[in-house]
Amino acid sequence: MLSLEEDVEAQALRDQGWSISAIARHLGRDRKTIRRYLSGEQEPGKRKPAGPDPFDPFVAYCRTRLADDPHLWASTLLDELAELGYRGGYSTFTRALRRHQLRPHCEPCQVARGRDVAIIAHPPGDETQFDWVELPNPPADWGVGRHAHLLVGALAYSGRWRGVLTEAEDFPHLIEALDAVVRKLGGTTHDWRFDRMATVCYPSTGRLTAAFAQAAKHYGVRSVVCPPRRGNRKGVVEKANHSAAQRWWRTVADDATIAEAQAGLDRLAVKLDDRRRVRDGEPTTVAALAAEEALRPPPLVAFPAEFDVTRIVTPQALVSFRGNHYSVPPGLGGAAVQVRHRLGADELRIVTAGGATVALHHRALDGAGRLIRDDGHVAALEKAALGAFTTDRPCTHKTRRPPSAAALAEAARLRGLPATGPAAHVVIDLSAYAATAAKLDSAPTKESRKG
After folding, report:
1. CA nearest 58: which of 87, 35, 22, 31?
2. pLDDT digit string, tens, across residues 275-332
3. How far apart are CA 450 and CA 446, in angstroms?
4. Are 129 and 154 in contact (CB under 8 A)?
5. Residue ranges of the domains in the chain?
6. Which residues form the Integrase catalytic domain (predicted)?
7. Under DSSP, is residue 310 helix (H, G, I), strand (E, B) or coil?
8. Taking all residues of the chain, what is their mean pLDDT, rounded to a whole number?
9. What is this structure's pTM?
10. CATH of the domain spanning 306-387, picked from 3.30.70, 2.40.50, 3.30.300, 1.20.1070
């Protein structure tokens, strides 16, 4: 391809009488190339396509997806196209989106933000930032209400992040999710940074709660709380929240289970470890920067937070908890009970509303789909079920049973006729019939017909 300068020079030399071969030797180009530009077959600065555009088969799909969701990230859409067979790179893909003008215009998004943002330096292994993300409209089968809850933790130096789905944002679920995120990240840093969440500190003062202070001691970290209305102090995890919401949550299927959604989030987080970065002028990746963090290993066991969640007993005397079912004594069907267990412990207790412990079970692995039943509960349930049966002869459904006298009397009342009992008869007046019969004693004559 000739540049604009080469095209101008070639045209000037041609006007001076140079041959095409001489111009080609002078510019170091092929004669056929010079001939195409001088004849106008090819324009400078524009490459001739080598073949059909590989993006053309995917234009309709991209137009439909962006019409349904105008704010869908290009990287998320590229992930979907890669599964459909598209092999182009990100820059080629975004250039095709602009060329075909596939993304609808959104006027509110054009407002300039115009806010200065400071750059905060984070040494390796210095800080992990945590934040909750409320995810709207979760699948109905999850049974978590209007929002699912995701705790995201991000390493401030490298930008590596991981997330864990939970059913609530209370203290025990926070500790459980924190422990899982730390282990997914590969260890803990010196500091943990939070916003003013009530399970960590008192929002009005920013002072740590007594319960979370004990948890921080257990993990050997210093807890740092952001000043009020200063969310940009934890911009690394905020960006991770954005990625999780746009590239993962928007694509979770309606029939996906919690375990499947968590697995999809883990795959995305690992994939994003290959993101390119530039540090001190040298190209690198998130994974390479994370290797420099020198994280400290977490404690062998999680902080022993106490869980207390409400469940409803099924008619089969079972209680569902974390993808498994645990038995209780019979007679509690439909009642609300409390499932209590300590994080890291192997046992769980099921307690009634009055505080009585009715079952103690060995806790199965979450999501294993196991049925844990106590032998005593099984025997008691069978005894109760068998006791509800009777040995009396069951009703015979094919016996002939015509309407009784009482039913016939009620039917007669509904018809407006008098009823005097089972021997009552209907009396018909025959006087009109007798008068008509008397007139017909003799055959009618011709005169009577005329009359």
Report:
1. 87
2. 998 888 889 999 999 999 989 999 999 999 988 888 899 888 899 888 889 998 888 8
3. 6
4. yes
5. 56-106, 127-291, 306-387
6. 120-293
7. strand
8. 84
9. 0.63
10. 2.40.50
